[in-house]
Restriction endonuclease subunit R
Amino acid sequence: MEKIRQKKSVEIFAEKWGVDAELLSKSLSSYSDSQPDFVPYIDELMKTADFDKATNQSAGNRLGHIIRLTKELPIWIARTKQKYS
């Protein structure tokens, strides 16, 4: 049941930010609490970020979107890993 909730959480975040859900899931699985400042596959995730597909376009443009995503992703991934581990 927890795996289903985790998958749904990944899908929601990926849709919100326009990133690849499969890669985000891989990043979450590889994330380690012992290295809280390191987000696995962050460069690849940023490359997949599609501002036009993101449901959250509050930044107004792709650059602002990437900046916000760069700040939000480490927080989300740490909370999500803790929640479902």
Summary: The CA atoms of residues 59 and 67 lie 9 Å apart.
